[in-house]
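Record type: monomer structure entry
Structure origin: computed from sequence
Chain ID: A
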Amino acid sequence: MLPITRVVIYKHGLAFYQREGLISGSSVIELSFKAEQMNDVLKSLTTLDYGEGHFSALSYDSEEPAEKRLADLSIQLPKGAAITQFLDQLKGVHVAVNTPTMTIEGAIIGVEELAFYAKSAENSRSTLPHLALLNPDTGMNYVLLQNIQNIQFTDENIQQELSTLMDIHAGIARNEKKRLSIQAIGEGERKISVSYVVEAPVWKTSYRMIMLDDDTNQHLLQGWSIVDNTCDEDWQNVKLTLVSGLPISFRHNLYSPRFLARPEIKVDQTAAVAPPVLESPVAAGIDLPVNDDIDFLEEAPGLRMAKMDALLASPTPRAQRFASSVKKSNPIQTRTEEKGDLFSYEVNTPVSIKRGQSALVPILQTRIDSEKIVYYNESIRRENPMSSFRIKNSTPLTLEGGPITVYQGDNYLGEAMLDTLRKQEEKIVPYSVDLAITVSTKGSTRDQDYTKATKSGHYIHKYRKRETITEYLFDSKSEQAATLYLDHAFKFEMPEQNNTGTAREELVEVTENYWRYRIPLPAKSQTSYQVVELQYVSEAITIPNISTYEITSLTANNLINPATAQQLEHIAKLCQQRSKLEKELESNSKRYAEISDGQDRLRNNIHALGTSVEESKLRARYIAKLEAEEDALEHTLAVLESLKKDISSMALKIEEATDAMVFNDD
């Protein structure tokens, strides 16, 4: 097997393996893979002969379903009564049966239960299985199964089928690896290469940030890569490259055979037909084009390998030289290169990792721009800010994401997660809670005068500004001054001008959900800081119900011009007239109800009177009063109908005046 000489591990779960070695003459290169790796291998396998040879057929173990392979055999292994059922399938097969006393040859007829009497007190009768054989010379022979030492099959086809049957069942039992054979054709000793891509664990990154005691705002960043060897063989002096980015990759089943259902055509039992005679072409001498320049087994793989080498092997300048003591402790063994969206670390020193083991490889050591700060975000921790550093990737590298451990000299300070950081990109990285600073917040609102008004349908909307003020109080008991970055979660707009104490020049960044401010915090002091947000609040006035007071308020706030005010005053007078009519309607409706109730009482009284003289006089009086109230009821009803018509007419006038209204010359 060719040794692994190069491994390129990607961040998206794949690894490129390259095997190289010397061969002499024509050889077969044997490789083995797990069944689940075969799809990736068949999709990416590339071969290259650096001499005068070339590659012929590439063959591999098929993954035809075991059930289908077994179904193609005439012999099966039974689940129960294995010997008797197995021999019963071999009827007619010629065998040689060896027993302790003799060898019997013949064709298998089957297995039969024959009776015998046990040598016991009662001479009980029982049966035992016997193999029945037919020999042309000796006739029918029975051999007790338990006396058979071995059975030899004289038919080579049967022997081959039995061997295939055993191989299939052995493969099912051990879930064996799949073999891949590559036929290399050539003469003499030469170098060859085989490469492929298979699934592999992603490489991981971890960092150490060492805060240095200087005023340069540059600290020491060390990077380490964790690599896992999950292959079934050791890596010996392997050239290792680690690539970040997200190239497109996918799964595709090339390994499993595909079978398609076909329609069945019934046999047509008609008379045979003579073979047809086709006409000859009119024009002759037309040759089909042949492309002699295509060599899929030699040129195409070589081209692909050359592109891979160009992508992963070109050098870049090494990192800067650092303090000798640190550099001697953790020498950098990589060179880096950025290629579009991909960034690679190529380990200069060959790596050896035993199978099933992992390695921690230093890939980075550099001074990097980083400012020690405190960071406050109320949603992260309400009571205290976080000790943090604001890091700017001033290196020529793309820093992969990973955990970062922070030290002050040789003192452990905390831990954080560093997201992927491209060149010149800046991020804030919190690593511990700063208990020396406490934070409290207080919210308030302040309304300003109305600033504008608009008309929409039958409504006037008047707007004013409302300031939402969040006051942060930072109480520092630290002996050192600090720079605080405040992330304020905003809901409304930012004021155009500063009239409330918020210095817009202190706003350093705006993210999707936060305004970020940079605030100096003196040592052992309290610092108050206000953030103001601007909100527009609206109130609606219904024009058909507008009052004179509302018109006066709109005019006093300069929200409407005189022409609009005059139109609104006309509508307000119509509204007053409608209101007067509505009051009259309400009064007459009440009068109508009272008369109706009085009539009901009179009718009840009349029904209760008897036939005496006094009651007759009282009945006449009630009837007269009932007639008078009936007249009053009819008159009131007529008044109600008239008022309703007047109110409807007045509402129509108000609606027409509202629709025809020109608001502030719009």
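Annotation 1: The chain is about 25% helix and 40% strand.
Annotation 2: The first helix runs from residue 38 to 44.
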